[in-house]
Write a structure and sequence with these properties.
This is Thiamine diphosphokinase. Its EC number is 2.7.6.2. It comes from Aquibium oceanicum. Helix content is 19%, strand content 34%. It has helices spanning 16-22, 35-40, 78-88, 105-120; strands at residues 3-7, 26-30, 46-49, 67-69, 93-97, 125-128, 133-137, 140-144, 151-156, 160-168, 172-177, 187-197, 202-207. With 216 residues, it is an alpha/beta fold. It folds into two domains: 3-131, Rossmann fold (3-Layer(aba) Sandwich); 137-211, Thiamin pyrophosphokinase, thiamin-binding domain (Jelly Rolls), CATH 2.60.120.320. Strands 1, 2, 3, 4, 5, 6, 7, 8, 9, 10, 11, 12 and 13 form a 13-stranded mixed β-sheet that branches.
Length: 216
C-alpha cells in the first residue's frame, strides 16, 4: 500500500486526525501548497505546478525539493498534476490536504468532483482541511469513525437513490434525494454512523472537531 498526501493551496489546520492521515505517507506539493509543509513537519518528494501562486511564501526551506515546472497556460490544475504524479508513483490512496477554502472557490469545487472521479476509478480519497473532512460516497454501505455530536452533511452532485443514514440524529431509510435538496444538510452523528447509497454521486462532508466542548 502506498498512501500519498497532496498539499493543496486551501486552508489547513494541523490536528491529531490530520497527523494520523499523514502518517507513513509520501508527500507531493502542488504550487502554493508547499506553504503547509513546514507546519506539518513534512518534506515533499516533489513540488509541481506553474508556480504562479508562491508570491509571499518563504521558499528557502524547500529549495532542495525537486520541481516539476509547467507553463501557466495548461489544461490541468496544479492539484490534478500532483494527483497524476502520485498515481504514476504507484499511489493506492490519496489524501488531498488543503482541499477546502483558499482564495479560489472553483478550485475547492474541482477538488471535490475530482475526488469523486478518482473514487469511481477505485482510488480511495480523503479531502481535508484538518477541521473538515470529505469522502466520496460510492454505491454500497460504509461505516465511519466519527464521535457522537459530529456535524456532517451529504453533498449531492446528482440525484440520489436508495440513500440510508443510520447512527444519526436524523436517520434516513432508502430515500430518493432530488438534486439541490437541502434535506441531507447539517445532520449529527448518534452512535455508529453508517451510510448506504444505491446510485448517484455524492460526498460526505464532516467536521470531526464539532463534538468537542467549547474552550473557556
Amino acid at each position: 500500500m502506498s498512501k500519498f498526501v497532496i498539499l493543496l493551496g486551501g486552508d489547513l489546520v494541523r490536528t491529531p486526525r490530520l497527523d494520523a492521515a499523514l502518517s507513513g505517507a509520501r508527500v507531493i506539493a502542488a504550487d502554493s501548497g508547499i506553504r503547509h509543509a513546514t507546519a506539518l513537519g513534512v518534506t515533499p518528494e516533489l513540488w509541481i505546478g506553474d508556480f504562479d501562486s508562491i508570491g509571499g511564501i518563504d521558499v528557502e526551506p524547500h529549495v532542495d525539493v525537486p520541481r516539476d515546472v509547467y507553463p501557466p497556460e495548461k489544461d490541468s490544475t496544479d492539484g490534478e498534476l500532483a494527483a497524476d504524479a502520485a498515481l504514476v508513483r504507484g499511489a493506492t490512496s490519496l489524501v488531498l490536504a488543503g482541499a477546502f477554502g483558499g482564495p479560489r472557490a472553483d478550485h475547492a469545487f474541482l477538488h471535490m468532483t475530482a475526488a469523486i472521479r478518482l473514487a469511481e476509478s477505485g482510488m480511495p480519497v480523503l479531502l481535508t482541511s484538518g477541521l473538515e473532512e470529505g469522502m466520496p460516497l460510492m454505491p454500497g454501505q460504509r461505516g465511519y469513525d466519527y464521535a457522537d455530536g459530529t456535524m456532517f452533511s451529504i453533498l449531492a452532485f446528482s440525484p440520489l437513490s436508495g440513500l440510508s443514514v443510520e447512527g444519526a440524529k436524523w436517520p434516513l431509510d432508502a430515500v430518493a434525494i432530488a438534486f439541490g435538496s437541502s434535506l441531507i444538510m447539517s445532520n449529527e452523528v448518534r452512535g455508529k454512523l453508517r451510510i448506504t447509497l444505491r446510485a448517484g454521486r455524492a460526498l460526505l462532508l464532516a467536521r470531526p472537531e464539532t463534538h468537542l466542548p467549547s474552550a473557556g
